[in-house]
Amino acid sequence: MNGLFAFLPGKGIVIINLTGSGRIYDILYSWKVLKIIILLHMKYFVFMSLFLVFACSNFPSDPLDTTKNATNGIIKVGYTENPPWVIRSGNAPKGIEVSLVEDFADGINAKIQWINGAEQVLYEKLEKYEIDILIGGITDKTPWKKKKVGLTRPYITVEKSKHVMAVKSGENRLTVALERFLHSKRERIHQLVYP
User: Fold this and answer.
1) What's this model's pTM, rounded to 2 decimal places?
2) In Å, how far are 5, 30, 51, 53, 59 from 44, measured between CA atoms?
């Protein structure tokens, strides 16, 4: 029976046709039927609630505890020079993405371990889970997105190029935290890119 249940005081349950004709199929006057329907729905609701609580208790996933370890700890950030996004400068790099990663690290009370290298080498380190984040003016067109690396959602579009940051594949909690941070800094990012 396709219909919508509606309770009418003193009348019982009315089943209304949802096919568009508007006809009332039936009126059930039995409180026993009402109690059975409510009991079945409550059991189903309790079961599904418990299932969702236990199935999703560790979502988004953090299988290697990257976010847990980075919070109040160290986050390893690989960088490759690509001005104005990343500019190599002495011991610590500078640039738009460097500033963003530093603010993100401050937000989770993490220290940054900067790792400089060629793009190919850094992507391989990311694949092997040796670094947590990779920056360097990366766009969503990177050929590495088909490999074992994750990418954030684009945080700004410049000249039709959607900029992203690369992260460890499967470390969804880190990706979600970084994406939320980048989303919250939209105005600041726009000011950094278009001063």
Assistant:
1) 0.67
2) 17, 22, 10, 14, 23
